[in-house]
Design a protein that fits this description.
Length: 147
């Protein structure tokens, strides 16, 4: 099992080295900002103002942690998300996360990517292991802001 772990680590390192010198994609068109973007009727586009204040957001965040609604966040309440994540990894429920449990997702991901089953990932197979990222919203700058 140690050999499998070393092999997975070697594959990750090889993938990093493989993509290290890859050219970075560039935008072919400059992003449109609120000051120069217009709708079909030539009205300037503006982001809607949010009625939610930073204080409101903090109250909501506090309430998400304060499960027993006693206006205090206990250590257990604060760590509940980490506890859930640990429990997902501790498949056999022994209170410990062994390497097999820790690496299970990575091993499964490797197996799924290795479509031809040869025990190695070609570039196209390796590309399927990249994390799926959410698209970043376009920058909407305030009127008068530059840069």
């Amino acid at each position: 099992m140690l050999a499998l772990g070393v092999a997975v680590l070697a594959l990750v390192a090889a993938g990093f080295l493989w993509t290290r010198n890859a050219p970075v994609a560039t935008a072919s068109e400059a992003p449109r900002f609120a000051a120069d973007a217009t709708a079909a009727d030539d009205q300037p586009l503006e982001a809607p103002a949010s009625a939610v204040t930073d204080a409101d957001r903090e109250v909501r965040r506090f309430a998400r942690y304060d499960k027993d609604t006693d206006a205090l966040i206990s250590r257990d309440e604060y760590l509940v998300n980490r506890t859930k994540a640990f429990a997902k990894l501790d498949v056999n429920g022994d209170g410990k996360v062994g390497f097999d449990e820790y690496a299970a997702t990575t091993v499964a991901k490797f197996g799924k990517a290795d479509r031809d089953g040869d025990g190695a990932l070609a570039a196209k197979e390796f590309a399927t292991t990249a994390a799926k990222r959410k698209a970043k919203p376009a920058c909407v700058c305030e009127k008068g802001d530059e840069g």
